[in-house]
Design a protein that fits this description.
Helix content: 25-40%
Organism: Sphingomonas palmae
Distance between the termini: 18 Å
Shape: globular
Mean pLDDT: 94
EC number: 1.6.5.-, 1.7.1.17
Radius of gyration: 18 Å
CATH architecture: 3-Layer(aba) Sandwich
GO molecular function: electron transfer activity; FMN binding; oxidoreductase activity, acting on NAD(P)H as acceptor; oxidoreductase activity, acting on NAD(P)H, quinone or similar compound as acceptor
Domain Flavodoxin-like fold: 3-202
InterPro entries: Flavodoxin_fold (IPR003680), Flavoprotein-like_sf (IPR029039), FMN-dep_NADH:Q_OxRdtase_AzoR1 (IPR050104), NADH:quinone_OxRdtase_FMN_depd (IPR023048)
């Protein structure tokens, strides 16, 4: 049985959010290709995870019995998110681009699951090794203009951020589905959506 973890980070409701609509389309397509697939849906915008603070940073470095109540609570929240990530075979991330990056709630989720010694480790030379391996990830994004490449020249820091953050954890099989031109005229918006929809069909044939 294939297990899918879907993370939604758009603050817009499902009926108007392009990233949510396309993420759902992708999940349906994957489920059709894998009958009986199980899905966990996590709406980061509706139930935002807490920002990483001193309690989590201290708590993960202490034995369980030495943690304060605040530290124990922070570690438990982080552990729940990591357990969902461990459970999943496939990760679907809905992440619209805002101001050249993705929504802050997704960054907060990344911070909560990026725990040294749990989801990645450093060797003696300081090289990082991911401990969450063997998974495939899809990033489904909507963007106002045309951001076909990543980095400073394109103004697209979202794709590269997710790619590097997941690679730290050991998730390197990553595919981006992008609906560009969503801030332009209706015809351009439709064209951008159609391009993304075709990309889904290419990645997960019906």
């Amino acid at each position: 049985m294939l297990r899918i973890l879907a993370l939604h980070s758009s603050p817009r409701p499902a009926e108007v959010s392009i990233s949510r609509r396309l993420s759902t389309e992708l999940i349906v397509q994957i489920a059709r290709a894998h009958p009986g697939a199980a899905v966990i849906q996590r709406d980061l915008a509706a139930e935002a995870p807490p920002h990483v603070g001193a309690a989590l940073l201290a708590g993960v470095r202490k034995p369980e019995l030495d943690r304060s109540a605040e530290e124990a609570a922070a570690v438990a929240i982080s552990a729940e998110m990591i357990e969902q990530l461990d459970w999943a075979d496939v990760l679907v991330i809905g992440a619209p681009m805002y101001n050249f990056g993705f929504p802050s709630v997704l960054k907060t989720w990344i911070d909560n699951v990026s725990i040294p010694g749990r989801t990645f480790r450093y060797d003696r030379d300081g090289n990082a090794h991911g401990l969450v391996t063997g998974k495939r990830a899809y990033v489904v994004t909507s963007r106002g203009g045309d951001y076909g490449t990543t980095g400073a020249e394109a103004g697209n820091f979202a794709d590269s951020h997710v790619r590097v953050a997941l690679a730290l954890l050991g998730i390197v099989d990553l595919h981006v589905v992008a609906a560009d031109w969503q801030a332009l005229h209706p015809e351009a918006r439709r064209d951008g959506y159609d391009v993304a929809s075709r990309r889904i069909s290419e990645l997960v044939p019906a």
